């Protein structure tokens, strides 16, 4: 298993090694030590590699991940797993703002809290947060699921499109065009499935409330101008 | 646009290391702002004395024989020169008189800040160079703030570097950019505030000073800043015994805080905090939007 | 003798002119601001207000067709392993699939490729058609991130981080429901038929300090191969250019207010941003102050229509230009051959700007399958290639006349200005004088 020490190895070498995995290679488990808040760690992965990052990372860790499995044994800076395509990213600690921004697929699990704008502009990614999320989360969320076991901050789901939001705790306030919606059987099933994928036990789907788009801003109407 | 750091020590045994810890934090933030850097250190106040930090583009002629020149006009001052800066220690109560005398005797000198305990050092250049120029590492103290700048719309000069002094023992560093500072500056000028730069952050600093002159404490002044300042900002401010943080209501400029039994620390990024003792076990969080955070040695004691 | 009042003709207000009155009535009736495509229609100081001096006795011209005048340009030489090499400094600006039909995007790719230049994607992602037909393709990285994915990032030749555009600095986009077809909806992950609002800020960074880190991430994902452009609208060009350079851009794209858009509020198009002419010198000054002129390349866009405009932009310090509206016209946009249909839409050829409505008779700004068929991408691509080549020849002709063996050797001193406004903005002397108003600062 390649161990890359970012205290001595340049970031560029780590990422280019991750981009140059030969087809059928068995050497696909990487360990990264001494990340010390570095930016752009393990970005642009396009193969089913496993990366264990021992420590905290800066901006955009696992950005655009496509098929890799990245675990951060620490906390993550802004934009972790931004624009993820597929695969899995797990943050053992907390995540800063913009976690999972514009993600199109795959699963992002945050075991601690996520800060503001978690799931901003999400486009198909599934995000599971064990703790709480900050303000303006799922802003302009287009598709995918955001599951929060704790509480949500202000303006949840502002200008939401079709992303589905599930919160177990309290929601400080809902953003424009976001409303609580009925929890139907398919949503309970989906939640159970996401719990399984995220390795969550001891939590029941029935404990969550669902939030989605009120769809009032889908076509412009001057009488909704106060919402802009 | 910038990198900010701040460190407020709760554990007195760390005080000798304040300068070294803060220097490392600031150097880590170099990428966020390569234009200029500055640091404010709150050290032990000398009883009955006031400190004035001075800067000069021609430190040789300006600082040489300064003590004597001040003595000639009846002002007792000790002068410690550090590169382009000098710290004057004068009798408490003679601060204003000394500043007036300096303006006459050495018009090239600029006052970076003054108070019982604060010393402010700032220059153009990278944090590592600025820190070593002023030997910040060797400095002890109770708390301090630092800044590394990527200039947006105002000039890259020493005076345009942060921290901006906001009054006796008060200073501020800023990440972001304000969008109503020109109007606000005009109002403050009408009220009698004097500005050294075209920098938006100096307006924020002067605004806080003006609000506090009206009787507000720093926490209240920061609360009113949330109503009166438009744009994007994360501020870290220092007072003689306190340390505060506030972010604008949109709060998209980065900010990370950490607290242990030994300290409260602020960094624009987590990277700035990684060398602090016991960081692995610290409570780490991001300050909420439009929320004032404030720690005070005097109130804590 | 009876007295007759002499006839006084009715006098219309200059302030409340016919257009203004109609706008007030339209807003009152519909309750929506006017949304339209294209760029500003008001008259602003422009390249037309500048002239080249040419050579005579004090300087010597080059012989046309025989003595070489090079037009090539290399973009992205600062950090990228694979800079972009173009035969002509006239590139095609970003325009989205969605705003434009598939055949129109294909035609842009074909035309640009024949002429040896690049084309650019837009807010909506990269299509196989345009990648396949474009030898050199710049991939836009936009606030909406519609269609953004690492595969397309890697198959692009350069990446353009879009911060703003000249038609609307500080604003986002608007694609009305009529144009969100099945394919557009799928590419943008949106429900079909909704009005799509594009963000004005990037979702995961704000400001130059964060941009530096975003650029690092894009470079790491693409192994430092691709040039990274940063595109800004003409707002505060000195600062914006300087900050783009500090954030690590290889190329700065600066789009003045005459730059087109697929759809934005008219009030934005007409009232926000600076004329292209006024943007160039401050941007060049910023590059010079940082010691980066010609090291970080500057692409100017917004109302570039001819070889003369190209030569003038280059003389003022740009390395290349980008065209959008002019390219669409070359493809067949607003062609009088469709006049009857323009009339039915309540407009006329040359004024049609309801690009967002998807009813373009020329089949360019539409997703309607029947209208799209009207544009033959091969023939339209050929027209664009012809136009690009003519512009290049025109710029070359001017450069030779000024005694230059390369377009890049044109200088501000080769120009004079016809108006005080243009003289002040371009910082070249008023014709026949040595006077430049306001010289000495921005």
Features:
heterotrimer; A: 228 residues; alpha/beta; Pectate Lyase C-like; eleven-stranded mixed beta sheet; 2 helices; 11 strands; 10% helix; elongated; C: 442 residues; TIM Barrel; eight-stranded parallel beta sheet; two-stranded antiparallel sheet; 16 strands; 13% strand
Walk me through what this model shows.
- The complex is a heterotrimer of chains A (228), B (301) and C (442).
- In chain A, α1 (11-19) links the parallel β1 (3-5) and β2 (29-33).
- Helix content of chain A is 10%, strand content 25%.
- Chain A has a single domain (3-217), classed as Pectate Lyase C-like.
- Chain A is built from two helices and eleven strands.
- Chain A has an eleven-stranded mixed beta sheet with strand order 1-2-3-4-5-6-7-8-9-11-10, covered by helices on one side.
- Chain A has helices spanning 11-19, 185-198; strands spanning 3-5, 29-33, 50-54, 66-72, 86-91, 107-110, 123-129, 143-148, 164-167, 178-181, 209-213.
- The N and C termini of chain A lie far apart (52 Å).
- Chain B is an alpha+beta fold and 301 residues long.
- Chain B is 27% helix and 33% strand.
- Chain B has helices spanning 18-28, 59-63, 66-72, 95-105, 127-133, 181-190, 200-213, 218-228, 297-300, and strands at residues 2-9, 36-42, 49-55, 77-82, 85-91, 110-115, 118-124, 143-149, 164-167, 170-178, 231-238, 242-247, 256-259, 263-267, 283-285, 293-296.
- In chain B, a hairpin with a 3-residue loop joins β13 and β14 (263-267).
- In chain B, α6 packs across α7 (200-213) and α7 crosses α8.
- By secondary structure, chain C is of the alpha/beta class.
- Helix content of chain C is 33%, strand content 13%.
- In chain C, α7 (237-246) packs across α9 (276-289), α9 packs parallel to α15 and α11 crosses α14 (377-401).
- An eight-stranded parallel beta sheet of chain C has the order 5-15-14-12-11-8-7-6. A two-stranded antiparallel ribbon of chain C has the order 1-13.
- Chain C is built from 15 helices and 16 strands.
- The mean pLDDT of chain C is 93.
Fold blueprint:
The complex is a heterotrimer of chains A (228), B (301) and C (442).
Chain A: E1 3-5, H1 11-19, E2 29-33, E3 50-54, E4 66-72, E5 86-91, E6 107-110, E7 123-129, E8 143-148, E9 164-167, E10 178-181, H2 185-198, E11 209-213
Parallel strand pairs in A: 1-2, 2-3, 3-4, 4-5, 5-6, 6-7, 7-8, 8-9
Antiparallel strand pairs in A: 9-11, 10-11
Chain B: E1 2-9, H1 18-28, E2 36-42, E3 49-55, H2 59-63, H3 66-72, E4 77-82, E5 85-91, H4 95-105, E6 110-115, E7 118-124, H5 127-133, E8 143-149, E9 164-167, E10 170-178, H6 181-190, H7 200-213, H8 218-228, E11 231-238, E12 242-247, E13 256-259, E14 263-267, E15 283-285, E16 293-296, H9 297-300
Antiparallel strand pairs in B: 1-8, 1-14, 2-7, 2-8, 3-5, 3-6, 4-5, 9-10, 10-11, 11-12, 12-16, 13-14, 13-15
Helix pairs in contact in B: 6-7, 7-8
Chain C: H1 18-30, E1 35-36, E2 50-52, E3 73-75, E4 84-86, E5 90-92, H2 102-115, E6 118-120, H3 128-133, E7 136-141, H4 150-155, E8 158-162, E9 174-175, H5 182-188, E10 196-197, H6 208-221, E11 228-233, H7 237-246, E12 251-255, E13 264-265, H8 266-271, H9 276-289, E14 297-301, H10 307-315, E15 320-323, H11 325-331, H12 339-344, H13 369-372, H14 377-401, E16 415-417, H15 420-426
Parallel strand pairs in C: 5-15, 6-7, 7-8, 8-11, 11-12, 12-14, 14-15
Antiparallel strand pairs in C: 1-13, 2-16, 3-4, 9-10
């Amino acid at each position: 298993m390649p161990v890359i020490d970012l205290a001595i190895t340049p970031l560029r070498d780590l990422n280019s090694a991750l981009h140059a995995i030969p087809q059928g290679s068995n050497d696909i488990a990487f360990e990264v030590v001494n990340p010390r808040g570095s930016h752009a760690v393990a970005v642009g992965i396009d193969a089913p590699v496993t990366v264990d990052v021992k420590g905290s990372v800066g901006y955009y860790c696992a950005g655009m991940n496509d098929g890799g499995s990245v675990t951060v044994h620490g906390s993550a800076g802004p934009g972790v797993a931004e624009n993820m395509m597929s695969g899995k990213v797990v943050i053992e600690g907390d995540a800063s703002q913009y976690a999972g921004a514009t993600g199109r697929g795959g699963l992002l699990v945050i075991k601690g809290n996520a800060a503001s704008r978690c799931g901003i502009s999400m486009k198909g990614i599934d995000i599971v947060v064990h703790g709480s999320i900050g303000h303006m989360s799922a802003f302009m969320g287009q598709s995918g699921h955001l599951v929060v076991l704790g509480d949500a901050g202000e303006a949840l789901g502002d200008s939401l499109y079709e992303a589905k939001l599930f919160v177990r705790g309290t929601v400080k306030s809902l953003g424009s065009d976001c409303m609580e919606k009925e929890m139907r059987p398919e949503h309970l099933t989906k939640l159970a499935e996401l719990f399984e994928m995220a390795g969550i036990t001891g939590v029941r789907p029935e404990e969550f409330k669902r939030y989605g788009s009120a769809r009032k801003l889908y076509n412009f109407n001057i009488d909704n101008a106060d919402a802009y | 646009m910038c990198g900010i750091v701040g460190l407020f020590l709760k554990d007195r045994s760390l005080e000798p290391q304040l300068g070294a810890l803060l220097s490392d934090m600031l150097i880590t933030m170099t990428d966020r702002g390569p234009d200029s850097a500055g640091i404010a250190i709150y050290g032990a106040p000398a009883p009955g004395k006031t400190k004035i930090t001075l800067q000069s583009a021609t430190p040789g002629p300006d600082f040489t024989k300064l003590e004597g020149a001040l003595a000639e006009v009846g002002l007792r001052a000790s002068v410690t020169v550090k590169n382009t800066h000098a710290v004057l220690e004068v009798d408490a109560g003679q601060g204003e008189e000394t500043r007036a005398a300096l303006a006459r005797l050495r018009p090239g000198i600029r006052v970076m800040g003054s108070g019982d305990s604060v010393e402010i050092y700032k220059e153009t250049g990278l944090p590592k160079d600025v820190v070593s120029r002023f030997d910040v590492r060797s400095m002890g103290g109770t708390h301090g703030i630092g800044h590394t700048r990527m200039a947006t719309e105002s000039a890259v000069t020493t005076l345009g570097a942060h921290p901006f002094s906001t009054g006796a023992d008060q200073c501020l560093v800023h990440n972001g950019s304000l969008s109503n500072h020109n109007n606000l500056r005009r109002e403050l000028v009408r009220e009698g505030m004097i500005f050294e730069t075209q920098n938006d952050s100096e307006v924020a600093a002067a605004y806080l000073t003006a609000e506090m002159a009206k009787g507000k404490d720093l926490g209240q002044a920061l609360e009113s800043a949330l109503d009166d300042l438009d744009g994007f900002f994360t501020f870290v401010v220092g007072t003689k015994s306190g340390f505060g943080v506030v972010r604008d209501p949109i709060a998209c400029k980065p900010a990370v805080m950490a607290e242990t039994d030994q300290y409260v620390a602020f960094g624009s990024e987590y990277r700035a905090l990684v060398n602090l003792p016991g960081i692995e076990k610290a409570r780490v969080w991001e300050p909420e939007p439009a929320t004032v955070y404030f720690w005070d040695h005097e109130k804590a004691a | 003798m009876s007295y007759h009042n002499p006839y006084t003709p009715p006098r219309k207000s200059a302030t409340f002119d016919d257009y203004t009155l109609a706008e007030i009535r339209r807003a009152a009736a519909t309750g929506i601001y006017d949304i339209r495509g294209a760029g500003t229609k008001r008259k602003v100081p422009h390249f037309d207000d500048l002239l080249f001096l040419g050579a005579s006795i004090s300087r010597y011209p080059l012989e046309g067709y025989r003595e070489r005048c090079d037009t090539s340009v290399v973009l992205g030489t600062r950090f990228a392993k694979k800079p972009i090499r173009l035969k002509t400094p006239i590139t095609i600006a970003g325009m989205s699939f969605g705003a434009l039909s598939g055949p129109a995007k294909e035609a842009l790719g074909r035309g640009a490729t024949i002429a040896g230049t690049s084309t650019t994607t837009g807010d909506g992602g990269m299509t196989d058609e345009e990648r396949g037909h474009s030898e050199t393709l710049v991939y836009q990285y936009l606030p909406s991130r519609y269609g953004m994915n690492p595969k397309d990032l890697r198959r692009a030749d350069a990446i353009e981080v879009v911060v703003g555009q000249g038609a609307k600095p500080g604003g986002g986009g608007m694609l009305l429901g009529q144009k969100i077809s099945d394919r557009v909806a799928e590419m943008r992950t949106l429900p079909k038929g909704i009005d799509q609002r594009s963000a004005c800020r990037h979702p995961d960074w704000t400001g130059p300090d964060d941009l530096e880190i975003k650029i690092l991430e894009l470079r790491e994902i693409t192994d430092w191969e691709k040039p990274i452009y940063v595109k800004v609208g003409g707002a505060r060009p000195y600062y914006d250019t300087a900050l783009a350079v500090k954030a690590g851009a290889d190329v700065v794209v600066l789009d003045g207010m005459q730059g087109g858009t697929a759809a934005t509020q008219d009030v934005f198009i007409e009232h926000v941003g600076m004329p292209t002419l006024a943007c160039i010198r401050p941007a060049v000054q910023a590059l010079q102050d940082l010691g980066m002129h010609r090291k970080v390349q500057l692409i100017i866009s917004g109302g570039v229509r001819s070889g003369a405009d190209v030569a003038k932009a280059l003389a003022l310090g740009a390395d290349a230009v980008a065209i959008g509206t002019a390219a669409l016209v070359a493809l067949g946009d607003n062609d009088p051959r469709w006049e009857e249909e323009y009339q039915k839409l309540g407009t006329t050829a040359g004024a049609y700007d309801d690009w967002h409505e998807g009813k373009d008779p020329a089949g360019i700004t539409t997703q309607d399958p029947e209208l799209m068929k009207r544009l033959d991408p091969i023939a339209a691509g050929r027209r664009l290639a012809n136009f690009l080549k003519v512009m290049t020849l025109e710029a070359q002709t001017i450069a030779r006349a000024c005694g230059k063996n390369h377009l890049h050797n044109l200088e501000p001193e080769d120009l004079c200005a016809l108006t005080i406004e243009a003289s002040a903005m371009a910082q070249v002397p008023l014709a026949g004088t040595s006077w430049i108003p306001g010289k000495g600062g921005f």
